[in-house]
Amino acid sequence: MPNKTKNSVPQKVLAIRLSAIGDVAMTVPSIWSVTQNNPNVQVTLVSQGFARDIVDQIPGVLFFEVDTKKRHKGFFGLFRLFNDLKRLDSYDAIADLHDVIRSKVIRTLFRLNGVRVVIIDKGRKEKRELCREKNKKLIELKSTFERYADVFRNLNLKVDDSFDYFFREARLSSQISIDLGYKEGNWIGIAPFAKHKGKIYPLELMEKVLEKLSSNKTNKIILIGGGGQEKELLEGWAKKHPNTVSIARKYSIADELQIISNLDVLVCMDSANMHFASLVNTPVVSVWGATHPYAGFYGWKQNPENAVQIDLNCRPCSVYGNKPCFRKDYACLNRITPELVLNKINTLLNQHVS
After folding, report:
1. In what order do the strands lie in the sheet with 186-191?
2. Which among 156, 217, 276, 287 is least buried, having the fewest CB atoms inside 10 angstroms?
């Protein structure tokens, strides 16, 4: 029988974080620390298939892939997921790192079977106060990294901030080296997309940043994005501007992590790519609009001075950037000049050279 005593140390922990890829990336420092500081503890992370390449980088951590499209889809699919997990192993504790309907159903079923459950405190009330239009409380909240760590600490596990990065300047495969060439000068990544409009720097302004950077022959610009329209746009930019290549949808996440580890700087939004760069110790110039680092989603051990943002009374208006603009003009993004972004990039590159 599982040991659910409050003061006991679990031997087998099932951690649940079903989405999104950036949030899964943010679980890494805590899970890494658990494996390093609690050698007798086995952690299994439950997530979607996109997370496998990230979890595989953490020594000793097991991964269970959720099939949300077929087998584990819908309410009855959650019962199948529960039974699949029960057959997989016998767990002492459930670490719910997500606290959404799906994870609530799964943890409840385990709790009814006598398994101890600890749930993340997302700080929803504080985040609402941070993002409300009137009487805003503009204070820095606990980071999501710490919120994940607290879940494991509440299971009596030792967790610290000793994680630095997976690797740095990974040796690239021969195929990637053929596609990108061997490194000379500065490699600058640009990942201009995010899930929601409130987090995307206007593309016409980002192209001006690209135009200036690509005009310097010592720079190679590597464009990073997804499929569909993102891929089409980035390939168009690569054809239009010199010293520029798009890797959108060309490689696995594992390959992208290796490529990002070779960048001298990554320019991105408040997005998953910021967290990918953090996992491989690549400095980030991140552009912030409707969201704000104070909400707790800034990159792991990234320098706060490298965040590009402007002060407006309405910022932040959203935790995730998915709410319509109060002002109707997205001034938080449109008022950020390409020169401001370029200055941050050049400062980082100069520090790298010195």
Report:
1. 244-246, 219-223, 186-191, 265-269, 284-287, 307-308
2. 217
The reply to whether 158 falls in a domain is no
* Domain at 203, CATH number: 3.40.50.2000
pLDDT of residue 354: 52
Structural domain harbouring 23 = 12-153
Q: Are 318 and 130 in contact (CB under 8 A)?
A: no
Residue of 259, 269, 299 whose CA lies nearest to 23: 299
- From residue 69, how far is each of 23, 48, 63, 200, 338 by CA, in Å? 20, 10, 18, 28, 41
Per-residue pLDDT band at 351 (split at 50, 70, 90): confident
Nearest to 14 by CA among 89, 95, 76, 86: 95
Residues 244 and 329 reside in one and the same domain: yes
Q: What is the largest CA-CA distance in the chain?
A: 65
Question: How many domains does one find in the chain?
Answer: 2
What's the whole-number average pLDDT of the chain? 96
274 with 188, same domain? Answer: yes
Mean pLDDT of 306-318: 97
Residue 156, pLDDT > 80, answer yes
227, 233 Cβ separation under 8 angstroms: no
* 235 and 108 both lie in a single domain: no
Taking only Cα atoms into account, the Rg of the chain, rounded to an integer number of angstroms, comes to 21
Question: How far is CA 82 from its chain centroid?
Answer: 26
| Cα–Cα distance list, 26 to 5, 145, 271, 297, 305 (Å) | 28, 6, 11, 8, 20
How far is the first Cα of the chain from the last one, in angstroms, to the nearest whole number?
A: 59
Residues 6+ apart with CB under 8 A from 157: 9, 10, 13, 34, 37, 38, 41
Instruction: Examine the domain organization and report whether 95 and 201 are in the same domain.
Output: no
Exposed/middle/buried for 126, CB within 10 Å: 0-12, 13-18, 19+?
middle
**Going by C-beta distance under 8 Å and a sequence separation of 6 or more, which residues neighbour residue 191?**
223, 224, 225, 266, 267, 268, 269, 271, 273
